[in-house]
């Protein structure tokens, strides 16, 4: 595999010398280039598609396909004035029909869209004229404008088609800054500048996304001048620190790592066990020794959000407190120094994705930390997607969004998102907490930001009293790039560093 990737990189070497071509490494390869099937702003999708709204470098909402909008006082009715100068990549003009089609497609359960939960409150969509649309919601949903930053898809190509299987997903047409050219599965995607892009003149003519899952190979390809830019793991940064050919941009992210408990495991039904394990982890050591300072301690899922409260509970590293909690729960140490109850040893599996080196390392650290406490664990690593996250004892999970706090909270922690009940839910650990459900629902439909802050504080407090996860660390990302590239701007990133190329239409090589 390494030999193939290096040969592929070498085949792009001549392109790197061209000022009109950028080559970026990306970690993940999506299966369909269609916004309907991505809950995040994936790099390829963001290149091809545009939303009604977009985020600037400070994560403030700006217009994209929408020029402006008005919201009724009760938060139920939105009127959008659309741009009349936008063309799909095939030359057909964009209009309100595309917006109506897209939002209804995202909501339609037949399409199995990952975005469905964000459009459940849609009640009615009316086209007032080709460039004016009125949307009515059943309940206020303050995250709606954020949700509308996802890409709009073309009605003229997808009406009466099955979005799940349509060939469009492999050969997409959008209104974004780059046109899709070619996709060699498992290797790269190729794009060309959209000469009719409505926001600005695209500064680079050709763009190639190379799919490199292994962070060590990405670092090697960048060091050997086979790619122009990549997010590089902190453990590999030493090779770039004093290399004058590169710039390093450190970017914060809302991306956290945590150990998810499966509440169907008999041991985890007792919250004292989960609390004890939270106290048994030295998070500061992980930030210092594993992330090399590129991150910070995680306590809850909204620490990079405007909803982050000033005061919240921290789980300090305290083995004595952990021991007391286990003993309070009826456990005692046996001759081997392991906690047991009713002749059953307190032991469980920790699953991690084998193709994610950091998660594998974190699983090993947790195993070591729990061993010090007297808890036995088994680390099991398997490829992403090769096991059912909702059926294992525990799982090294990653979540986090820099956008509205409703994203990556409601669909992760509410009972209604239990994967037993909801095929599109992300509550893989079957966590049920009435206070969490109530707080997240109230925060979801309140149009008053101060009220929402209060509800999210209640949610965070409830999580700390009855933890579904061991929150470990938030990640900072290092974007390492050829010093000849201009126009790169930092921003708080999302899960797996999504968003590092948010203004790529402004990037150029000099």
Quick structural gist:
With 510 residues, the chain is an alpha+beta fold. Helices cover 25% and strands 24% of the residues. Helix 9 (271-279) runs antiparallel to helix 11 (319-328) and helix 14 (434-445) runs antiparallel to helix 15.
Structure description:
The chain has 510 residues and is of the alpha+beta class. 25% of the residues lie in helices and 24% in strands. The chain is built from 15 helices and 24 strands. The chain has helices spanning 2-11, 13-16, 43-48, 96-107, 144-147, 155-158, 215-223, 238-241, 271-279, 283-290, 319-328, 357-373, 410-413, 434-445, 449-465, and strands at 21-26, 53-55, 61-63, 66-71, 77-82, 122-129, 132-137, 178-184, 188-193, 206-211, 229-232, 246-251, 256-261, 295-297, 332-333, 339-341, 344-345, 347-353, 376-382, 394-399, 469-475, 477-482, 485-486, 508-509. It has a four-stranded mixed beta sheet with strand order 1-10-9-8. Strand 4 and strand 5 (77-82) form a beta hairpin. Helix 9 (271-279) runs antiparallel to helix 11 (319-328) and helix 14 packs antiparallel against helix 15 (449-465). The longest helix has 17 residues, at 357-373. It is globular and about 75 Å long. The mean pLDDT is 94.
